[in-house]
Structures
1.
Amino acid sequence: MSDKVKFNRRNFLQILGAAGIAAGSGVLIPKETLLARTEKDSRRRGHQSNEVKPGELDDYYGFWSGGHSGEVRVIGVPSMREIKRIPVFNMDVATGWGITNESKKLLRGRYTGDTHHVHGSYKNGTYDGRYLFVNDKLNNRVARIRIDYMEVDAIVDIPNVQGLHGLFPQRYPKTEWVVANSEFQVPVPNDETNASAFTKPKQYYGLHTIIDAERMSIVCQVLVDENMDLAATDYKGKYSMTTSYNTEKGVTISEMLASDYDYMLVFHWGRIKEALRKGNYTRINGVKVIDGRKGHSDIVLRIPVPKNPHGINVSPDGKYAICSGKVSPTCTVVDLDLIDLAFEGKIKPEECIVAQPEIGLGPLHTTFDGRGNAYTSVFIDSTNVKWNIQKAIEAEKKGEEEKKKKEYIIDVLDIHYQVGHIMASMAETKEADGKWLVSLNKFSKDRFLNAGPVKAENDQLIDISGKKLRLVHDSPAYMEPHDCIIVRRDIVEPNVKDRYDMFEHPLAVTESGVKRNGKNVIIRMTSNAPVYGLQEVRLKKGDRVTLIVTNHDEISDLSHGVAISNYNINFVIGPFQTKSVTFTADKVGVFWVYCTNFCHALHLEMRMRLIVEP
Amino acid sequence: MKRLIILIFLFVMLAPVKGYSQWEFFEHRYKYKLTDVLEADRFEKKDGYWEGYRGNRLVGYVFLSKEWTKKLVGYSGKHMETLIGMDTEGRLTGVKIIFHSEPIVLIGLKEKNYQDFMKQYKGRSIKEELTVGKQISMDAITGATVTAVVQNAIILGSARKVAAVTGMMQFAKKKRGKISTKFRRLTWKELLESGAVRNLRVTSESLGMKSKEVYLDLYFAVVTPPSIGRSLLGDRLYSDIMKRLKNGGSAIVVFARGKGSFKGSGYARGGVFDRFNIEQQDRVFVFRDRDYRIVTEIKATGAPDIREGGVFIVRDAEFDQTSPFRFNLILPFRIGAKKEFKSFGAEYRLPERFLE
Ligand SMILES: [Cu+2]
């Protein structure tokens, strides 16, 4: 015992007033109050550390889209460590996504995808930690990821559209709908029944698709002349919004840039529901399509904004929608409290605009800190710009002279290089906390070891807890994240499971065995480290084989692999998970089935044989 | 090696299918007679145990662990069935392993090593402390810490339960009290001083190391009283844990700092925490990874930074969190390249003020 903390047991017991404390050897109550929280101190405003020491956990789950890798990634923030890749629209030979029957049923033969926007399901304006939704711009699908297993459980095809891009869930009172936009106008329907429209771009349309989040089915589509880029919803469950950069219906760049003004579109959910109730729609490819064109219905409000806008983001207080200008150096601030008046015709749509501050060259996306400030990614300048929304509105009121002073701009940070999306922690919720900002940069150039002509992207972590933006960390990203959300750990963590519910899978194997019915063979097999439930299975050439495997290990993190040599099959099963594959035994010989995912000291011995006889 | 053509899966005990499992390679079943563990010339069958007589004199008891502590399972996920003999004073007269499937072969051990480990129980009293790393040495099966800890819990728990049934030892059957639902946010200092949080401090010196450093500075507490749980874990984590406990059970929270680790890495492989357990009267509770939720910071004002922490759920309704219990720590450490073990313990008694 050290002399520093000499301890008198009798006194101690008196202090406690507790009887029956029989302290064992080595038991000691330190007299002094314990050490100061040096580390916590270093997290004070403007000086946050991104260091997450061995054994510590990140404060946030980051969910990143994987772009044309087709996946979604889980990144720890602020450490920026990649924790998981969730295969979504791609084939993943590690987990067997795209190889197993379960995943093939969802993917239906398409293994390319382009994920742009991942968003979580909401309750009362903040994440509820149940689901993630993500778009596929390439094959026009929306997938849902269940957060408990961090895997895809549903994929819905979106007909009648191309370039399915912006996606956003309903924020209030909870996520019943998810909206998704089509960026490329196409003939509707886009098939042989409508071939006359193929060469007539004026007969191309954009569609705002509404998806039922629980059922993962399409509620309806709203047809408009415009294309639609990014998506947002309000905090009252009344509207969804988007920007359009091709109101011209151009099919070449010069045509798309022709007009000086494009639109922010607002969709009135009450009126959409009414149209559905009244049957004011036509069915196209099985989907209810509501006419939202100008002059044809009152469902869509069109607010003119400077040409070719890009992102649309709603401030955490629910008051403003901000359209980032892209080609225009400005952001357009729209007061959402005025939208109803505009819908009712009491004011002009453009009167909803309360500020148009100049931000920099190429504003793309805006995010928030919950303290009234906006952060806009500025592509051409390669900066992140922090500005105050209220000050911008006041400057607008005071006039051009005041605006020129640009006093609403608080700080400008150079980034490396060419930022696309930008996102702050919890910024797409009413609980925006203004701690961290991630700048998803499209070029890394010389920021990492040179790994050949095709280089990583650069996700930069920025401390926004203080007045100034402070660049903290660069992390390389494989092509090509577009957008991300940064979700507080305590929202996600309680929902994430360590093992599957075994009988959620209807084919869960509890007893190994082989069943033959003519040429059809069903192999049911358990796996427990380090043995499979079967040691050999005899097959005949040409047999149609279904192999179903259930992992019976309960220990968390104890996953097994199932790989069939020379049969181009591999998949991984987590604790209590079941997966199956179906294949034809077209090669004769002995084929070892082995465990690919380390599981045990005798992992290498974990194998069995398929004997395919001629 | 005796090869049984019997198929035993962990989760199903159904009829064997064609082909056979490789599990029997890890399974060891031994024949036994009651006199293997107690010298007696006559045994009388009782409910869950046998009385052993020499002449007309009752000399002790023989019992099978699976009758008493079946829930305790080892690395293999299976109970290590043990035949235990005990005299009328609570001294063990012999213990014999009759079935286990602990994969000790993987760490280069033989069955004989397991049997050697068991030999040291003969003559030990279950009325006294009986802890791995102290009275019970792990030398014979070094490396098989999960097996040793669980085996010890099986012997001690079974024997104390039989001692209670036969009237040799008395244990309170009634719960001490009801936990108060009152809430007051307590500081770290208040939590420590009230006895709500207990400290167990292992110095490097006590392990024979030269350093002056504290090797492991560990704190533990019961979670349920809101003034303790909410103050330590914060409202959100506390309510998550309480949700998990809504169908019964209780939880303890353990935090530590220092060079040593109470979690170790055994749970990563076998799912069992082999460095600590809690002991309450005739019961020993061992924790598995499914009972565990990581904790990375103490929320109470003035609390130190910690290096590791966790909430551990006791599902067993036999545990009474209001009654005193003992936290046992079996700490492996290295002196040079040599691995050693030493045990420590601390008593916990929920202070009166947290009871109704
Ligand atoms: Cu394996």
2.
Amino acid sequence: MKARTCWEAVCTVDDLVADSGIAVWTDDGPVAVFYLPHRLPALFAISHTDPFSGSNVLARGITGDINGEPVVASPLYKQHFNLRSGQCLEDESVQVKVYPVLLDGNRIRLEVQVAQAASVAA
Amino acid sequence: MSKQTLIVIGNGMVGHHFLEQFSQSPAAETYRVIVFGEEKQLAYDRVHLSEYFTGSTHADLAMGTADWYADQGIDLRLNEPVTAIDRNSRVLTTPKGEYTYDQLVLATGSYPFVPPIKGNDQDGCFVYRTLDDLDAIQASAQSAKTGVVVGGGLLGLEAANALKSLGLQAHVVEFAPRLMPVQLDDQGGALLRQKIEDLGVQVHTEKATTAIVPGSDARLRMNFADDSHLETDLIVFSAGIRPQDTLARACGLEVGERGGIVVNNQCTTSDPNIHAIGECALWNNRIFGLVAPGYTMARTLSAALNKDTGAAFTGADMSTKLKLLGVDVGSIGDAHGQTPGARNIRFHDEQAGHYRRMVVSQDGKTLLGAILVGDNGPYDTLLQYALNGIELPANPEALILPESEGGAPALGADALPDTASICSCHNVTKGDISGAIDAGCTDLGGVKAETRASTGCGGCAALLKKVVDSELEKRGVEVCTDLCEHFPYTRQELFHLVKVNGIRTFRGLLKQYGKGQGCDICKPTVGSILATCWNEHILATDHVPLQDTNDTFMANMQKNGTYSIVPRIPGGEITPEKLIVLGEVAREYDLYTKITGGQRVDLFGATLSELPEIWEKLIAAGFETGHAYGKSLRTVKSCVGSTWCRYGVQDSVGMAITLENRYKGLRAPHKVKMAVSGCTRECAEAQSKDFGVIATEKGWNLYVCGNGGMRPRHADLFATDLSDEELIRTIDRVVMFYVRTADRLQRTSVWMENLEGGLEYLKQVVLEDSLGIGEELEQHMADLVDTYQCEWRTAVEDSEKRKRFREFVNAPEQKDPVQRWTSERGQRRPELEAVSS
Ligand SMILES: Cc1cc2nc3c(=O)[nH]c(=O)nc-3n(C[C@H](O)[C@H](O)[C@H](O)COP(=O)(O)OP(=O)(O)OC[C@H]3O[C@@H](n4cnc5c(N)ncnc54)[C@H](O)[C@@H]3O)c2cc1C
Ligand code: SF4
Ligand code: FES
């Protein structure tokens, strides 16, 4: 059975910071949303959780591009993650979750799976 | 097998170098080693003896430490001269006892020759060889106005400079018709004389002193053979050295006609169990009065004692390059053209004060010798031609002509053979350097650490850099200095571009000089450059995305995503009231609290959204940000100083607070630490900092470019007895020069080591203003001081900026679920959890 998804509104354009990231809380846990105004598309969303430390910090990394691909560098141990695929550039076996993102008027929406929402540990 | 005994007589430069070599060698296992030193101090750097007058201490000049000797198991007996050697029973005598040896090494150096002039032993007459000599000269100089050096050679001129630096009117009296008769010719000597007289030292040549008698205006009067005389308060004899061969003579070893212990190519004397190295040894009827040949002898002997049959001392180059009283003087090989058929090429620019002479072979193909006065620019190139017998170009004069008159550029490192000696102090050849690079060294600092090249007199620094660069390039390790794929420039070049073109944003710079979108390397680098150039708030919209998370949120991120907070506590001085506020805030937010090494308090475990609240409270109590998150000034550590400490000679806390308030907030290529000690006991450990200040009776001594951490480095003495204003001006200049020219993430130590010319060059730029940028640097620093703002104050007062501190922008109440806590020793700490990956 296909997991159920929905387009959850997470924030507005005013919350975004150009060339940088912010963190939002979704039904699927913490997600980092990046706004790179000099690219098309300009919005990217990946898991906020740094797979190497287990901490929720990726939105606070420095963004940029490497060989033309948009990336963020983890603020803790500095690995780079491709914002389009979630692939870690330093370790082939590591990937973070990527979320489809769209601009709906003034709102930013992410496509998240609803079914897993309750599994966040207390 | 019981160990044999090896005894070394003399703990000077060469004796010490021998022990360094020998104790690392396999043979060290089989010997018990005893060293006797006549001087009471451990071996020190005699070459830099004069620096003792400008603030260096014995500890600064020392070549090793007592601990090192102990670690090697060497029995070091200082202040215990050997008085006799009995070769039959192999027993030595000292005032304290008798000792048996199996192998004996004489490293007794030499003693200053004092001409047999009547009255040469009265009060006020000195020699210039040991620390004790210098102590005596200094004591006598306190009540003196004038001083005379007898002898116009290398050491005499150095001694004259020392007298001048002690505040005396200095004279040089030379028997020969010119200065430095051994190294220079008449023209060179005359030019040197003129330059030295311009500096206020009076030179008297062709003067033979006949007697020294009590003076009428001064303490002493020197009478000369031509019936003239000179009155002076003190006299320093520097009329040459004589090998210290007294012991050897007395026990019947073969000595030279004019002194010196005769040795063969293995540095062994006429007794197979006795060896001699350094200035006391006579090889091939020659004495070597320089340290490098002594070191070579030491290495040869160490190898020979390890049964290396190939080890041989085969003579040494006596070329010298120095700065005497600030005047460049160089002398290479057969400077006087004594080789049959030798021809001379001379260039003399009276206007600029440059004299250059080349001595070339009859066929004009090889360089035999050279003399330089006024500018040692061509020295390295000429020396390499002479040492390696490289064939001269068809127009050899081009080597000494200024480039504007058809002079040739310096010899490329490529043209040197592998055997070319690059560093004579540590016997490093070009081949050794390429070997080190093949073994994995990738930069100048690495090669220096590996080969020790350029860590002796430092004279080879420029040449070494050239060779390293060219060798790296040859290996296709393109010496790529690009910052990253977005900017084909170094940090220094970018700094220049930003400053000169008035660029104020990252985008602006990227558009004009870069490509792509930037990355986590170039963004913080440019952010730091922009901050230094324009000092705008780091949370200004354009700058936010440039910063590391620590800079963005002005706190240090810890491994669970929370932050630590370090308020500034200038000089480590804090009132009880403020201390209580720190405690209360920490209690309220349950922050783990720890005292830092930099005399402040670190509060751990604040979440992103708590940061502005906490800072509101701290600011209300008068705290400012401590910049612990930035590549900028951290703390100025201090001891309690003259206010409380019975030894203190200056107010170290006051100075530390002044410095901390002046340099706080300055953005630099890396973090910068400082410290101020109230006296030479150095309780603030200033010599392990980027900038260390130590109080003296007369002011402050400044040390620069030290650091602790992974690769600790003692700071170098930079300037002495500075007034408060001079100290601040000097630090201003060094700091700004560092900020402008260092590479990304380069600490001051590495920066300085990589400057072509190193410490000396830095001194010229800062103390002598050789680049003419001193005022500009000071002005830039003054501007930064004027525009300082506490970033946290600005941030908490601005609601837009505060928005950045929301942990989850859409869920203010949501706690970060991975931040879990436990407690330990009465405080909260993160729960350690195995991270799944
Ligand atoms: C002011 C000055 C500037 C110099 N500048 C330079 C320079 O720029 N470049 C350069 O290459 N060289 C320079 N030199 C020369 C250099 O210092 C010497 O070449 C070097 O020190 C020689 O080392 P050594 O070990 O042979 O002798 P020393 O360093 O003199 O050591 C010999 C030691 O043996 C001790 N000793 C002697 N007899 C006994 C005994 N019976 N028992 C126990 N101990 C004994 C002495 O007390 C002394 O400590 C300079 C020297 C001076 C004084
Ligand atoms: S460095 Fe000197 S003044 Fe400062 S505490 Fe130590 S002894 Fe006292
Ligand atoms: S020649 Fe003295 S350090 Fe290299």
